[in-house]
Amino acid sequence: MVDNPREIALFVLNRFEKRNAYPDRLLDTILSKKELSPKDRGLATELVIGTLRWLKRLDWVLERYLNKGVETTPFFLKNILRLGIYQILFLSQIPSYAIVNEMVTIAKKGAGKKAAGMVNAILRKVILEKDHIPLPTYKDDPAFYISIIFSHPLWLVKRWIKRFGVDETEKLCEANNSIPPITIRTNTLKIDRQELFSILQKKGYEPSLTIYSDDGINVKGMKSIADEPLFMDGFFTIQDEASQIIAYIVSPPPESRVLDLCAAPGGKTTHMAQLMKNKGKIVAVDRHIGRLSLLEKSCQRLGISIVDIYHGDALNLKEILKNTKPFDYILIDAPCSGLGVLRRNPDIKYRLLLEDIKRVAKTQKKLINEAFYFLKQDGVLVYSVCTFTPEETYEVINSILQKKKNFIIEPISDIVSPKLSPFITKEGFFLVLPNKSNMDGFFSARGRLINE
Q1: Which of 173, 299, 336, 386 is catalytic?
Q2: How far apart are CA 266 and CA 268, in angstroms?
Q3: Residue 198, class by beta-carbon neighbours within 10 Å (0-12 exposed, 13-18 middle, 19+ buried)?
Q4: Which helix (H) or strand (E) holds 430?
Q5: pLDDT-above-70 percentage for the chain
Q6: What does the pLDDT look like over 285-310, one tens digit per residue?
Q7: pLDDT at 225
Q8: Does the annotation count 262 as an active-site position?
């Protein structure tokens, strides 16, 4: 594997296209094995995420310059052109001639002189015409306009327009294409937020306190988080602000017994451990062994000792947790469509189908039903997903309420800070959309098992 950030980006995009690889995980794996400068690591990441973020718009532009169309163009050549066009249209700090030279060299190396000549000709035309390329118009077809301009699948745009209206859908798609802030969560077992904030300032970063999480800090200027001594020494971890809210919704006191399902990589697990002051017990279950190792490392780094880790599918919980007594609190951070985190994982837009949403909703209901077996009377169950589809949010909870008559919803407004009131629905659920805040999209519901 090469050390050129553009070739690394091309490799990741090719794997995504041909093998449906997860770009973020593949990129992390590759970069962990490379001794690249922070600048080159950042460029490789920017090229992968940025190209995927704007893929439909890039293909709209590319279609103008390909005789046989985008779909029939070999994926290697197509991704070289996508990378080149993305840099020309969206990375103005890189000189156009340098972009062309780099992409032509890569094309020649991988596909020969003829391909290199084609790349050279197309990219030079794009440079000349970039300010005059015709785009769809809002007036002719709002859904198609939003789909191309903001690079979202047309079926998804139409679905959101039906639910939110045209204007809100446009704002939602625009928010999904924004670059999320670097948000950290203070490890209050070692330091308080204000002290960490002051240290970050002294180190030359630009921190700002999060609005809704009492433990969060947004940080500008931190290029390589993994190499930051404050991170390595466990004074903070990385976690979006909306994700941090979930532990407050659970709100387990010290000495509680907590079951955390689908726990890895452990942001919510370790946050709950902080709220418990590292006293009590958290049983964390996940079926992804590699992600569980991340949870284990996080606990060690943060100085957390109350988490017991179990590998296995939470749908077979009775087999995993034999002879285990009921829990005071259960958090189900369920697998979902992931539509709330498109700004971090834009590839989800192109993977997801409507039947996937319906399929995962069935799994979510099964997870909750399985968890009830381990919830003690008067115990609290919190359901959380990083999405906002009706099937995975309201419909899942309503289905459970119809079947489990002794499970009642506790309004989240009774648990969390009043400053979160803009995100509390009339049903008492937590719901945040990316276009309504600078946070990821999340849904959560909290309920209690009462005596029948």
Answers
A1: 386
A2: 6
A3: exposed
A4: strand 430-432
A5: 100
A6: 999 999 999 999 999 999 999 999 99
A7: 87
A8: no
Report d(CA 124, CA 144) in Å as an integer: 28
Strands (E), 191-340: 206-209, 216-220, 236-238, 256-261, 280-286, 307-311, 327-333
Domains of the chain: 5-129 (1.10.940.10), 142-176 (no CATH), 183-238 (3.30.70.1170), 241-449 (3.40.50.150)
Is the alpha carbon torsion for 127, 130, 132, 136 positive or negative?
Answer: positive
Q: What is the pLDDT of residue 69?
A: 84
Question: Which region, left, alpha or beta, applies to residue 107 given φ > 0 means left and ψ of -120 to 50 means alpha?
Answer: alpha
Q: Where are the beta strands (DSSP E) in 297-344?
A: 307-311, 327-333
Average pLDDT over residues 139-166: 97
* Environment class of 395 (CB within 10 Å of its CB; exposed 0-12, middle 13-18, buried 19+): middle
**Is 1 a residue whose pLDDT tops 80?**
no
Cα angle, residue 201 at apex, residues 195 and 203 outer, rounded to 5°: 105
- Cα–Cα distance measured from residue 373 to residue 384, given in angstroms and rounded to the nearest whole number: 19
Could you tell me which residues come within 8 angstroms of residue 101 by beta carbon, excluding any fewer than 6 positions away? none
pTM of the complete model? 0.95
Q: Is the peptide bond before 265 cis (omega within 30 degrees of 0)?
A: yes
> β-pairing, 442-449 with 407-409?
antiparallel
pLDDT, position 372: 96
State the average pLDDT over residues 8-18.
Answer: 95
Q: Is residue 362 within 8 Å of 391, Cβ to Cβ?
A: no
